[in-house]
Every structure is written in C-alpha cells, then in structure tokens.
C-alpha cells in the first residue's frame, strides 16, 4: 500500500442474526449481507471467498482485517473472532476490532445525510436486544464536520433504564422493536426509530479511521466484547440475584 492510497480492508460482522462480509478497495466496495440465524459458521467463509473473487484480488493485497467485537450474540461473536484469527494467522495481517453498535451509527448517517434544514449535529442511540430482559446501548453524536462520534461507554441495561437514557436522543436504531414495542412506540412519538442491524460494509468504512488500533496476532489475540461475566447465566439465576440485591 502506498502512503497516499486508501487501505484495503476485509471486514466480518456476525454479532446478530445478520451475517456480513465486506471488502473495501480504494473507492470500490464488495459486500455480502444476509439474515442467517444459526448459519453464520457455515456461510461466512463462503462470503469471504465471494467478495475476494468478485474484486479480483488475492489475500496479499489486503492490508487489514476488521471484525465486529460486539456486543451481541455469544456464539456469533466467537465466530467472527475465530474466523479473523485464522485468516490473520494464515495471511499475516493486522486485525482491527470494531464496535458492532458504532457500525450501525455509521450505516444510518451514511444513508441519512443531514440536510440544510436539520441541526448541525444529532444525538443517537444504537440498541440491540441482549435477551434476558436487557438491551445493549451505545450513544453518541453525529456532526457535519466530525461524523460519527461515541460519547458514552457501551452499556447493558434493562428497559426502564434505557428509556431514561434515550430520552434526549434525536434518533435511535437497532433491533428492539419486537422485544420492546412499547419502548419503541414511546420513542417514536417524538423522534425517529429505524430497524437496523450491523453491516460489515460500514464497519470497514469505520476501520479505515481506526488503523492505529490494528494489532498483529503476535501482539494481541482478537477478543469479543462480552458485557456479561457469565454469558450462560439463565433468566432464573438473574432473577435470584435481583431478589437478593
């Protein structure tokens, strides 16, 4: 890669029911994005081969690998991390771990540009259903000059806490409309909610600005972002803890 060139990035995102792989080469992009519940492991490598073949390149021309570190489904996160680890070892490429929630913000604002009648910036909330009566929440700011910015740490919260946290947001996007219809209805009465899942194409775009976080596997093994200490904890166990507290 020449110093003036945009880096070529292969990104993999499997944190939700959506499975996606994207390849960015200069201004060109190649992407596969499908809803594949419980079939990520069977399809993700085929998607990797598809985008590379479509682009007409080989692995030596890829500069960085990016993967969705989460938060999200436990099994899905392990798939992306495991696949990227294997590719990075085989190809000797540096890896960039990217937020799956921040990826949704990049997607939304890439496709919903502020027009002249909008404010110069908007506050946003990215949400994913975490099961067990909880929600993953990431919040930030989007501005005409600085693009997507994260202003809060990612959190795991119950419905009432999320309702309070998103009260001042201008827009919310995610997948909680089926699990929390009242929360979405309440928010939609004053602002916009958009159904959205993480997409590797927008992760690759963000990764281009995050090359300083890249690491070779000799330095750091890719680790998913888990917000629960015990990811296998049952709903009943969580209820018992809440009763004791």
3D structure, described in words:
The protein has 245 residues and is an alpha/beta fold. Strands 6, 7, 8, 9, 10 and 11 form a six-stranded mixed sheet that branches. Strand 1 and strand 2 form a beta hairpin.
The CATH architecture term of the largest domain is 2-Layer Sandwich
CATH class of the largest domain: Alpha Beta
Measured distance between first and last alpha carbons: 55 Å
Spans of at least 5 consecutive residues whose pLDDT stays below 50 are 231-239
Gist of the model:
The protein is an alpha/beta fold.
Topology (elements, then pairings):
Elements: E1 9-13, E2 18-25, E3 28-35, H1 40-55, E4 64-70, H2 74-91, E5 95-99, H3 100-111, E6 121-129, E7 135-143, E8 147-150, E9 155-157, H4 159-165, E10 171-174, H5 181-188, E11 192-195, H6 200-207, H7 235-244
Parallel strand pairs: 1-4, 4-5, 6-10, 10-11
Antiparallel strand pairs: 1-2, 2-3, 6-7, 7-8, 7-9
Keywords, separated by commas or semicolons:
single chain; 6-stranded mixed sheet; globular; 245 residues; 32% helix; Nucleotidyltransferase, domain 5; alpha/beta; 2 domains
């Amino acid at each position: 890669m020449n110093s003036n060139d945009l880096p070529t990035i292969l990104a993999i995102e499997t944190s939700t029911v959506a499975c996606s792989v994207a390849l960015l080469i200069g201004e060109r992009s190649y992407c596969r994005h499908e809803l594949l519940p419980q079939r990520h492991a069977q399809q993700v490598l085929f998607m990797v081969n598809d985008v590379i073949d479509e682009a007409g390149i080989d692995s030596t021309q890829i500069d960085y690998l990016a993967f969705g570190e989460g938060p999200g489904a436990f099994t899905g996160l392990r798939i992306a991390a495991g696949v990227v680890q294997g590719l990075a070892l085989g190809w000797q490429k540096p890896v960039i771990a990217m937020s799956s929630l921040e990826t949704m913000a990049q997607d939304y604002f890439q496709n919903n540009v502020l027009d002249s009648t909008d404010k110069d910036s908007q506050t946003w909330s990215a949400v994913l259903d975490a099961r067990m009566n909880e929600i993953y929440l990431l919040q930030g700011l989007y501005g005409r000059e600085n693009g997507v910015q994260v202003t809060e740490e990612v959190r795991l919260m119950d419905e009432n806490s999320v309702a309070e946290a998103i009260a001042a947001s201008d827009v919310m996007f995610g997948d909680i409309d089926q699990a929390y219809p009242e929360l979405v209805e309440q928010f939609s009465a004053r602002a916009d909610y958009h159904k959205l899942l993480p997409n590797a194409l927008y992760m690759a775009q963000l990764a281009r600005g995050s090359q300083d976080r890249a690491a070779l596997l000799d330095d750091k093994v890719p680790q998913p972002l888990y917000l629960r200490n015990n990811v296998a904890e049952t709903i009943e166990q969580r209820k018992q803890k809440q009763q004791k507290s």
